[in-house]
Specification:
Number of strands of chain A: 0
Shape of chain A: globular
Number of strands of chain B: 0
Order of helices and strands of chain A: HHHHHHHHHHHHHHHHHHHHHH
Largest sheet of chain B: none
Radius of gyration of chain B: 12 Å
Oligomer: heterodimer
Distance between the termini of chain A: 46 Å
Radius of gyration of chain A: 24 Å
Structural class of chain A: mainly alpha
């Protein structure tokens, strides 16, 4: 009759491991607009709104992960009752039992799905035994939702919050689709009170959300995907075929790509959550403007770094406090090795984390002499010093990302070797000529990053004063622009694999 | 109320002038110049030394402002 092919529709809506609903895909935007319309219709009924959100969230997760939706539901149920049990315990011992249960449950599942094969491989490699690798598929987003749930339990244990009485609210916190697959790793103490609030958006909220979504699309599709497919991937696949100059540009390019990929995702996640009336925590704050490695970690993947600061570094540091500086250093190195290991079960990520632990430890050791030096030469507020600090920090970070990105350790060393022994600065002109769009986009990416952040606020204010039709036209223009640059299919977000 | 003794320990540890720094019950560590996550442990050790007390790790972690830290000290000193 209408010529609708229902089998096609069911294909679109059923689980397909090769086709999760990516932010940025047209189907996602279509469904999200439909959700927003229904959501606004039920704006007055809290129960209806939350139910719609939960159903939509479960659909998005099912679409990406299939049967693992059951594991997500189990996670929500178990942690809700662990939290309740902890809240009802009269003694410290009782609270500790629930803490232990929750740690074993959450970390047990995470370790099983994410790290089992790494440990088996290590046992085989070091000749400790003759085992076979298991056929394990890691559920999408497990690193993110496990940490979200753990923060709820740990905050109750540390008496930072009371457990919630509402299973519905907690269930939405765990399954909330904007941040289920790649964060931000939100905190229950901030999220739960928002569930019961009335749905009301100011002009500024709408403008902010639009700005975040537009910037996210530009960062992800226009910059990250383009420079990765057209340049960065080629160099990292065969570093010895390129000169040092190209390797260095690929290293800088990858730093920008990773930032644009992940912060672009976070921007879209925060933007769509805002349109639904939820404020998620900030995940990036111009990380390449950092003047030291510790400053960098206050600006990069903030929801993860603050998680590890609160629940790993602080307890370790307090436990080791009598060892003074040595205690701090041990706590730092352990925390950063865990940061690396959280990203994935591989020696490369471990090494990357260790490298940042060492950076931080060295920073702590030279902190005193550095302060004296700056004071003696009155350098404290000098702009030149600031620029030098930013340059050094960026290079240390970009260097560490070589190990994060390279296909294996040998090729990471090849990248470094090419830069040191085969630099050939003259090739730069050829690079600009033959990779003009890539060069322009890398330049544009860094240029936008280093603009004063107040410019962003001013743009949001300007946008908030515009008529809704003008806003729609601007959004359409940005989507059109992004689509022009889009070179191939939307690339999966890098952080999905973690 | 934050005692002068506690305020002095914090200011000494962070090289601050107690006259120019306002610390009250609600004050949180990041609001005090120099009180960051790295030297937090030094301040705790200085307090323990000065008052001759010993905190449990969990007790320290539960303190989310200076007021809570003062109450923790009071509970140990009055024992």
């Amino acid at each position: 009759m209408l010529g609708i092919d229902f089998s096609k529709i069911s294909d679109i809506l059923l689980f397909d491991p090769r086709d999760p609903l990516l932010f940025g895909s047209s189907l996602f935007f279509f469904l999200f607009v439909a959700l927003l319309l229904i959501y606004r219709l039920f704006a007055k009924s809290n129960n209806a709104r939350v139910s719609i959100l939960i159903l939509f969230s479960m659909f998005i997760y099912y679409k990406a992960s299939g049967i693992f939706l059951l594991l997500l539901i189990l996670n929500a149920v178990a942690n809700f009752y662990f939290g309740k049990g902890m809240g009802n315990s009269k003694t410290q011992g009782g609270k500790r039992v629930f803490l232990l249960l929750s740690l074993v449950f959450n970390l047990g599942l995470l370790v099983y799905f994410k790290y089992t094969n790494f440990f088996i491989q290590a046992i085989i490699d070091f000749n400790f035994g003759n085992l076979e690798l298991l056929d394990i598929i890691m559920p999408l987003g497990i690193s993110f939702y496990t940490f979200k749930s753990l923060s709820y339990i740990l905050d109750i244990y540390l008496e930072m919050m009371e457990p919630t009485d509402s299973f519905r609210d907690y269930f939405l916190f765990v399954t909330f689709f904007p941040n289920i697959l790649s964060g931000p790793i939100d905190r229950a103490a901030k999220f739960l009170p928002q569930v019961k609030k009335d749905y009301f958006l100011t002009d500024k909220d709408i403008a902010m959300a639009l700005m975040l979504i537009m910037m996210g699309l530009v960062k992800k599709i226009m910059i990250a995907d383009y420079i990765s497919l057209n340049f960065v991937d080629r160099v990292f696949d065969e570093p010895v075929r390129f000169t040092g100059v190209e390797n260095l540009l690929a290293v800088y390019g990858y730093a920008l790509q990773l930032y644009c990929d992940f912060s672009g995702y976070s921007d879209i996640a925060i933007g769509i959550a805002l349109l639904l009336g939820f404020k998620l925590m900030e995940n990036f704050n111009y990380p390449f403007k950092a003047k030291s490695i510790s400053d960098f970690w206050k600006r990069w993947h903030i929801s993860l770094s603050s998680w590890l600061l609160d629940y790993v570094f602080r307890p370790l540091q307090i436990g080791l406090r009598n060892w003074r500086k040595a205690g701090n250093i041990i706590a730092l190195v352990i925390t950063f090795v865990l940061v690396g290991f959280w990203h994935g079960a591989s020696w490369a990520f471990l090494f990357w984390g260790l490298l940042h632990g060492i950076y931080m430890a060295v920073g702590l050791i030279v902190q005193g002499p550095k302060k004296k030096f700056y004071l003696k030469y009155k350098l404290n507020n000098s702009k030149i010093l600031g620029a030098i600090q930013i340059f050094i920090t960026f290079n240390l970070v970009a260097f560490s990302f070589i190990f994060f990105r390279a296909n294996d350790f040998e090729s990471a060393i090849d990248v470094v070797k090419q830069i040191i022994y085969f630099f050939k600065p003259g090739v730069f002109v050829q690079f600009v000529e033959s990779f003009t769009p890539t060069f322009v986009l890398i330049f544009l990416g860094f240029f936008l990053h280093f603009l004063p952040s107040s410019l962003n606020d001013k743009t949001v204010t300007l946008l908030s004063k515009m008529n809704i039709f003008v806003q729609a036209i601007i959004l359409t223009l940005i989507i059109w622009l992004v689509a022009q640059v889009q070179s191939a299919d939307l690339q999966p977000f890098i952080y999905f694999q973690f | 109320m934050i005692s002068d003794r506690l305020k002095k320990i914090i200011c000494d540890e962070l090289y601050l002038d107690p006259e120019t720094i306002e610390i009250n019950d609600e004050t949180q560590a990041p609001e005090v110049p120099g009180w960051d996550s790295l030297n937090h442990a030094n301040i705790i050790v200085a307090i323990e030394k000065d008052f001759g007390v010993r905190f449990k790790g969990l007790e320290v972690l539960k303190c989310n402002n200076v007021g809570a830290l003062q109450r923790l000290i009071d509970s140990k000193v009055s024992l």
